[in-house]
Amino acid sequence: MSKIRVLLKNLGPGLLFASMAIGTSHLVLSTKAGAQYGWIMIVPIVLANVLKYPFFEFGIRYTSVTDQSLIQGYLNMGRKYLWIYALVTVVSTFTILAALYVVTAGLLMNLFGITEVGEGIVALCLFIFIGSLLIIGKYRFLENSLKAVISILFVALLITTVMVIHKGVVPGSETYQRPELFNEIGVLFLISLIGWMPTAVEASGWVSLWSMENQKGMKEKPTLKEALQEFNVGYVMTAILAVFFLIIGWMTLYGTGTELSGKAAVFADQVVNLFTTHIGNWAYFLIAVAAFATMFSTCMTAHDAVSRVSLDVLQKLFPKRPVFSHKNSFAVTVILMAVINWIVIAGFGANMGNLVALATFVSFVMAPLIGWMNLKTVMGKDVPVAQRPKKGLRFLTYLGMIFLLVFALYYCWMLIR
C-alpha cells in the first residue's frame, strides 16, 4: 500500500502525457485505422508505442537526475541542437493545437447541436476559455483536473470495448477486402498514425518541463525510480487506450464502407454513434460528454505544453531578452499560441485532415534525429553513469531510431519520386 500511496502522490507528468496523447492519435487515427484496415493495424500501433518509449522516458530521466529540462540538455550539448529542436517546435506551434481544437470544437457542436456558427468561432471560444484556465490555474490546476477525467475515461472505454467484443464484428467484415496498405495513400496514413502514436517525439521535451513543474510543489523530490514508475503508468495506459479505440473502430465500422469524415463536426457525430450503437441510444449524451471531455483535457494539456516549451526555447536561445523572463511571460505565450493557431484554423477552413498532415510532416521526418539527441543527452556527462539507461533500453532506442528512419526515408522517397 505504501508503494501505491507514493505512486499516487507523484502522479503528474505521466498523467499529463496520457491526457495529451489521447487526442488525435487515439480518437481520430486509431479509430480510423481499425475502421479502414482492421485488426492488422494493432501491429504498427504496438510497435510505435514500444519503440518510441525510450525517447519519452529520457525526458523524465534527465530532469529527475539533473533538475534541468531536456531542452537545457540540448543547449548543454551545443546551440545547434537547441536550434534543431526549435525548428520542430515552430511546426508544432503552428499546427498541433489547431488540429486538436478543431476536433474539440466539432465534439462541442455535436454535443449541444450548435449549427448557427462555424467551427472556427467555436474553436475561438474554446481558445479563450482554456487559455484563461491555464493562465489562472497554472500547472497544479491542470494536473488535479485531469486525474478524474483520465480515470473515468479509462473505465468507460474498457466497458465499451468489452461490450463491442461481446457483440462481435459487424456483418460483412469477414469477406471485406481491406484497402492496400503499402500504396501511397496507405503509407501516408501509416506515417500519420506512427508519427502521432502515442504522440510526436518532440513531446519528450514537454514531459521534461512537466516533471520540473511537478517537483516544484513537493516537499520531497521523487527518486528516479519513483519518477519513472509514475511515467510508466501513464504511458502504459496510453498504449492500452490506443488498442481500445482500434478495436472499437474495427468491430463497428470495418467492412461497412463507412468513410470517417475529415470535417470535425461530422466526424464527432460518427465517433459518438460508434459507442451508442453498442451501448444504446440512451447513452448518446453521456458518451458525447465523455468524448468532449477527453478532447477538452487534451487541448488543455497540449496548450500548456506548447506554450511552456516555446517559452523555454526562447529563453534559452535569447537569454539577454528580459521579455522572455518576465513574470507574465507564460500568460502572454498562452495567448500568443491561441491567436496563432486560431489563424491557422481560419486559413485551413477547419479541415482536420490538412492540419494533421501538415503537423506530422516535419515531426515525423525529424523524429529519428530528436530521438538520437535524447539518447546523447542522457548518455552525456550531466548524467552519472549509474543513472544512465541500461543496455537493454539503449538497444531499444537504436531499434526505434532505425524504425523511424526507415519510414522517414521511404516517405521522403515517395515525395520526390
From TrEMBL:
Membrane topology, as annotated: Multi-pass membrane protein
Cellular compartment(s): Membrane
Main localisation: membrane
Any Pfam family the entry gives: Nramp
Record keywords, A-Z: Membrane, Transmembrane, Transmembrane helix
Signal peptide: none
Membrane-spanning parts: 40-60, 81-108, 120-136, 148-165, 185-210, 231-253, 282-307, 328-349, 355-375, 395-416
InterPro entries cross-referenced by the UniProt entry: NRAMP_fam
Protein name per Swiss-Prot or TrEMBL: Divalent metal cation transporter
Native source species: Flagellimonas algicola
